[in-house]
Amino acid sequence: LLTKKTLLEKMMSAHLTLPAPVWQRLNIAWILFFILSGILNIYVAYQFDEATWVNFKLFGLLGLTVAFIVAQSVYVGRYMKAPTEDNDPNNEI
What we know:
By secondary structure, this protein is mostly helical. It has helices at 7-12, 20-47, 50-77.
């Protein structure tokens, strides 16, 4: 809100070149993911016994995070350009 770039764009723009709307959608997706994870964590903590909550924290949230990252990678992959020989930094002349 205070800057032109989103937090993700500031952290990752050196590695990824994406249009501004994609950065904004990714930022919102991460915000919503963490909010929903927090709500789900509180729900499990208060509705189930401690052992179930620990298992949820260890396996459930880890699985959800991995699934979210895979989905995000597929989404970002649609906007990435394949490197060409002209601008390939590993191309030695």
